[in-house]
Amino acid sequence: MSDFLDSFRLRNEQNTENMDQKHLELFSLFEFSQTLNSSLEIQTILNSLLLVPMGRLMVGKGMVLLANDEKSCKIATVKGLPETLINTTFHFENKPQEALQINWDNVDRAFPEIILRYKIKLIIPIKSMNKITGMILLGPKLLGQDFTQDEIFFLSSIGNIAAPAIENARVFEQLNAVNYKLDQKVQEMNTLFEIGNELNRVFELDEILKRLSFSLMGQMLINQFFVVLKNGTELKIVYKKGTSFSEKNIELCIKSGSNLPDFSQPLLTSALTKNEGDLFNQLGVKVIVPMVLQDLVRGYIFLGPKLNKEEFSDSDLAFLATLANIAIISIENAHLFQETLEKKKLEDELNVAKSIQARLLPSVMPNVDHFDVHGHNIPSKQVGGDYFDILQVNEHEYIFTIADVSGKGMPASLLMSNLQAGLHTLYKEDYSLSEITFRLNNLIYKNTSSEKYITFFISKLNLKTNTLTFVNAGHNPPYLFYNDGSYDELIKGGIIIGMMENVVYETGEVSMKPGCCLTMFTDGVTEAMSPHDIPFDEFRVIDFFKREMKTPTSEKLNLKLIDVLYDFAGDPTKDDDVTILTVRRID
Amino acid sequence: MSGFDVSRNDVDQISVLYLSGFLDAHTTPKFEHALQTLIKEDRVKVIVNLKDLDYISSAGLGVFMGFIEEIREKGGDIKLSNLSPKVFKVFDLLGFPALYQIFDAEDEAKTKFNETK
């Protein structure tokens, strides 16, 4: 009886113990599934996935593997084993589909080396939709017994519960990674947007490069780089940051860089052939970014390594390409802006010169007894070299002169003022016209090279005798029209002034009869071009005066001629000054 | 245009720069100048307190990069403190935590400097 009771008690106790154990297992599973569902952190999930069985079954070491693909997996977490194993990827084909307890006395199949090395005792697959997404690997129990069927069943349940949670966490992790990448892209875009905006208001090369450098350093995590720009075919360094590039190395980089075949996208030096790649590597250049404007490479940025030792990604290279192109546009704009500024300054100076020159010409026409004198000059857009003057020598003598300096712009205008000054000192002395011309010729000859010369006509009117003496030094012959419609060309004189020294000039003389009209002009009149490229020519000048010489005043006559010129040529002052000086005897 | 300001407080060997407002490509020269001044005075133990910084752009981070080499060569460092989550995110996205020590509070950064004296 007591035996029976004893045995009953024993059986009951065993049952109770079993019940307790089952209860505990269920509780563990419940707790475990709660942990899983409360977390999207893959490490938290994997940790409890290992710690729960290790604690429950007294196992000293274990790891969780996640399948990369059919054939390989990665160690995701370890306990009781070196942490350095984490992230190790190894080959594992024919993964067991069911829980597998390894009998170390008689290993009946080939396992990956890791499993052998760490004497893994039990492999529990983690399955999601019949696909193995991972495995729990446990070492032997501390007390050495095999895992029982119940325990294996319990562990398989854990694996099954964990599978969807791991899957979720992995998706969540991927989503986070994608989000992070997206944020990085947004940051890149912001940087490009910002630098684009900023460079729009900077017009100095140094300032542009400095702004560029901060965006580059901040965004790329670098602080060693330099910028070279093309100047013709030559590459010139314009900016350098950091101490790792010596002058000599920069020269080497430029030299080796120009030997590379053309490239319009950023180039990783690691992608070069071994020789070139090694060279740039030694010089500390990781990326060469071309600065492209309108399909032409205008410069390069040479970049050193990232400070966090990471390689440049494709996304980095795309960013660099855009940044470099934004920068080169600004650099080019700045260049054009500076040029415009300088041009503007030059134009301003030219305008000053123009107004100075205009003041060298007579602005008020003198009243000469019995004569009507009028001169008119329209300067071309550039500073030109036309000159005319009316000078009273004494009570009864006047000088009328007209000249045209070869060429245009500053040099012509300088020479013209030289001539004016020379004449103004000479005319009051008691020199004949041929002497004045002789001296002016020597003066201009000394002051210029022989390509510069002046066509010059000077005449002197004597009011007592009504005679006009003149010297024509290579100038368009003035015409003297008479009442009867005939005319004389005033040609006598000599060669243009400024060509050679000590030229002797002849003097001509004509009589200024009543009603006659003398007209002097520059080639701006005769060479005014019609839209069909036909010059106005001498014959039209002659026809005009024959027709119009009875116009009431010299001023009106001159202005009429200018009207005719405008009608003929559009703008006759487009290429040259236009100057006319007319003297008529009116009694 | 939002403003930006730098103020400075020297305690013993350490200089603390307080940045406030918007640090972007437009306002970097001010910050740059502050760091240049510190280097000129040979004060290279620098804490940059970002408590009142509302925004930082990559160009702003570029200033940190532009001076770190020189400052570390002179035996100093730039440490950061009091970053708002928004500002920290930019530092994190660009990988700065790997290169700069970032602290929650200015005092922690000071302690770190004093440890390595």
Keyword list:
heterodimer; A: 587 residues; alpha+beta; Beta-Lactamase; Phosphatase 2c, domain 1; 3 domains; six-stranded mixed β-sheet; 44% helix; rod-shaped; B: 117 residues; alpha/beta; Transcription Regulator spoIIAA; five-stranded mixed β-sheet; 4 helices; 41% helix
CATH top level label of chain B: Alpha Beta
CATH architecture grouping of the largest domain in chain A: 4-Layer Sandwich
CATH topology of chain B: Transcription Regulator spoIIAA
Return the domain count of chain B. 1
CATH superfamily of chain B: STAS domain
Total E-strand runs of chain A: 22
Biggest beta-sheet profile of chain A: 6 strands, antiparallel
Amino-to-carboxy terminus distance of chain B:
41 Å
Top CATH class of the largest domain in chain A: Alpha Beta
Mean pLDDT of chain B: 92
Question: Globular, elongated, flat, extended or rod-shaped: what is the shape of chain B?
Answer: globular
Strand content of chain A: 15-25%
Supply the helix-strand structural class of chain A. alpha+beta
Q: Would you give the CATH topology of the largest domain in chain A?
A: Phosphatase 2c, domain 1
- C-alpha Rg of chain A (nearest Å): 51 Å
